[in-house]
């Protein structure tokens, strides 16, 4: 998988689910502001319509691709149907495939080998076993461009409500594994059933970003602008980063390798973080 494909995945703040069997949503899907669109063959499709959804995938992907953003598909991690799903994804020419409930490196390699070159893979870690094997899962194949954390499924597997206390440690572990392998990390540290409370959604997004998540799937268009904001540098962060570079360059001109800003130390890690924030802001316009 090329560096460019991983960079594309890293820039995705919000990935909006679009029902593959609901063409009436296709026309406006690309106008919602999401950085990518996901056609779902898994939870959004009842078992009786799985074959119909696969058949619809090619036309759906072609229509959504006209919007100019990456198109993904989430497949079923079911031995009885996964190969059929993957063949449909290849035929549809999707940019990336999301593999739900990934629990082993072998599963990842199985999927990657059937997708072939040019299709990115994002294994979703949604169970205790998956979290324990996260490093091996993320590093299993060069096709992996991102990973994701499924908060609701993980909480269900643990037999508990999806609280921050329960989800924080495994979510942080998944994010750490993603960054160790240089791939994006998508998800939240809670469920995303909330639609109306924009401030609550924003806080949820900020919490995930603080843990190292780079973006998240969204289940409703109303969530898109809120998550886009939460996973982007704020005006305050941008202004502070510019000041960091200014004082550091001034210090270097005087032969110093460190300096202070507002009473706080400014050294190389602080400068590198400021550069990363400004580069992220520049990439997203």
3D architecture notes:
By secondary structure, the protein is of the alpha/beta class. It has 2 domains: 3-230, Phosphoenolpyruvate-binding domains (TIM Barrel); 235-283, no CATH class. It has helices at residues 3-10, 26-29, 50-65, 82-92, 105-115, 128-132, 134-138, 151-158, 164-180, 198-210, 223-230, 235-253, 268-283, and strands at 14-19, 36-40, 71-74, 96-99, 120-125, 146-149, 184-187, 216-218, 259-261, 264-266. The strands form 2 sheets. The protein has an 8-stranded parallel sheet with strand order 7-6-5-4-3-2-1-8. A two-stranded antiparallel ribbon has the order 9-10. α3 runs parallel beside α4, α10 runs parallel beside α11 (223-230) and α12 crosses α13. The protein is globular and about 70 Å long. The two termini are 26 Å apart. The model has no long low-confidence stretch (mean pLDDT 92).
- Give the C-level CATH assignment of the largest domain: Alpha Beta
Low-pLDDT parts are none
Overall helicity: 40-55%
Q: Tell me, briefly, the overall form.
A: globular
Task: Determine the strand fraction and express it as a percent band.
Answer: 5-15%
Strand order of the largest sheet: 7-6-5-4-3-2-1-8
What are the SSEs and their pairings?
Elements: H1 3-10, E1 14-19, H2 26-29, E2 36-40, H3 50-65, E3 71-74, H4 82-92, E4 96-99, H5 105-115, E5 120-125, H6 128-132, H7 134-138, E6 146-149, H8 151-158, H9 164-180, E7 184-187, H10 198-210, E8 216-218, H11 223-230, H12 235-253, E9 259-261, E10 264-266, H13 268-283
Parallel strand pairs: 1-2, 1-8, 2-3, 3-4, 4-5, 5-6, 6-7
Antiparallel strand pairs: 9-10
Helix pairs in contact: 3-4, 10-11, 12-13
């Amino acid at each position: 998988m090329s560096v460019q494909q991983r960079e594309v995945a890293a820039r995705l703040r919000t990935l909006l689910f679009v029902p593959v069997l609901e063409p009436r949503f296709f026309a406006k899907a690309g106008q919602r502001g999401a950085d990518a669109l996901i056609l779902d063959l898994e939870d959004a499709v009842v078992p009786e319509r799985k074959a119909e959804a696969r058949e619809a995938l090619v036309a759906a992907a072609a229509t959504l691709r006209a919007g100019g953003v990456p198109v993904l598909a989430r497949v079923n991690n079911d031995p009885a149907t996964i190969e059929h799903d993957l063949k449909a994804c290849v035929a549809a020419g999707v940019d990336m495939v999301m593999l739900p409930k990934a629990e082993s490196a072998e599963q990842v390699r199985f999927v990657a080998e059937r997708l072939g070159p040019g299709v990115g893979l994002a294994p979703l870690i949604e169970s205790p076993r998956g979290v324990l094997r996260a490093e091996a899962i993320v590093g299993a194949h060069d096709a992996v461009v991102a990973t994701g954390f499924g908060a609701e499924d993980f909480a269900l597997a643990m037999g508990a409500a999806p609280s921050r206390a329960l989800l924080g440690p495994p979510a942080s572990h998944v994010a750490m594994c993603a960054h160790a392998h240089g791939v994006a990390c998508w998800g939240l540290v809670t469920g995303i059933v909330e639609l109306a409370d924009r401030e609550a959604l924003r806080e949820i997004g900020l919490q995930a970003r603080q843990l190292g998540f780079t973006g998240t799937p969204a289940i409703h268009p109303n969530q898109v602008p809120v998550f886009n904001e939460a996973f982007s540098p704020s005006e305050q962060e941008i202004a502070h980063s510019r000041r960091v570079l200014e004082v550091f360059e001034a210090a270097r001109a005087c032969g110093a390798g460190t300096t202070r800003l507002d009473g706080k130390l400014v050294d190389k890690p602080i400068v590198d973080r400021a550069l990363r924030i400004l580069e992220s802001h520049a990439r997203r316009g």
